[in-house]
């Protein structure tokens, strides 16, 4: 009992210190934010938070440490509602030594967010005939992110979902996002503007986020009430620009019309008699993110999810190239590839199969189509500059790699004692299908410049939640050899 009390006191102290350390920010202050919400009443709330989230945060702190440690890594959660967070963080003090900051969402939640959560719950029940915490939280997080930006004065942020380890230099990535990407940006899942995910979300200004949240609020309100009259008191709680137009149901009807179009171009919306209906579970954040992007193309962007190479086409697969680096439908981010979910499924399998189906590629995903038709592969490589430059890596991509660090550990005898890190790279094309190995190119038997290069992956969306297996490992910058460690942070602290 005493130890439990001490854990609580320690955790509260950590939260207070973190909150006091965050002040009003300038344009150059950009945080990387992870969000999670455990449901009160669930056993995990009283035991611990998911282990995969610990390693997602650990990987983010690793690249923060190796890329200058300038930009903060922040974890937002309902900390005071669930002792499970306390139990987990008490076992991982290294996260705070490496700079993790905690934000308790219960301390910053606004009336606007509470109202949005209430009507979103009712709307979900109206459509799904049940309450689904995952779908509810998936959209509610955007309101908490808005509360966070309002409370702490951040003008921009990068949000990653909790099962997304990040692998590239935060300094280079965030600077490039601010310079290169226009508008509210997400990752496209399909090639028909029907599904996007929030695996990674770039929010350049709070105004962009407010507009998206206003649209979400309006949609939920219209869906919840259907054709019934609105309660004038409730309407008064809506943002003015939303409250003035809720009675015409225009957004609801436009969204449903878009979903009906998607049911014809499938496969995620097909249901009902003769497969002509719209499946209720497709009423979620993924369909609305895609719809919002479709209706606001001038102020939103897609992040590239494929390497910049030629892709095969057939009558069903025609648009992979549009969603690649330098593609027509994306904004470039230093020639790096983002994972919408498909790369993580390919590497680690699906949650449904508990990761036993590694190599899986979903035929409805734009990345899955590229993997299936053109052929792609993913490999963790040591990011030593010598090896990567020999493989055609351009300077823009090299800038995204976490920096080398100097180790004073006595067991490191490599030249200069420089430590690099492994990270995932993707490539697509005939070479990815072939049996050629790295040694074939090292020996000079083949000319690497004629082969297809590796492209750094910004993140991996680990659908099966095994984030630990893909964490970066220390390696020799001189030889590329992985170094043995007892703990993931051995060369960081």
What does this structure look like?
It contains 19 helices and 14 strands. The protein is of the alpha/beta class and 493 residues long. The chain has a domain at 2-304. α7 runs antiparallel to α9.
What key attributes describe this structure?
single chain, 493 residues, alpha/beta, seven-stranded mixed beta sheet, five-stranded antiparallel beta sheet, 14 strands, 13% strand, globular
What is this entry, summarized?
The chain has helices at 2-21, 43-47, 51-66, 83-90, 94-97, 111-128, 133-152, 170-180, 206-225, 232-237, 240-243, 250-265, 285-295, 342-348, 366-373, 385-389, 395-398, 430-433, 438-442, and strands spanning 32-36, 73-77, 101-104, 157-160, 184-188, 196-203, 270-271, 277-278, 300-302, 376-382, 405-406, 418-428, 455-456, 474-476.
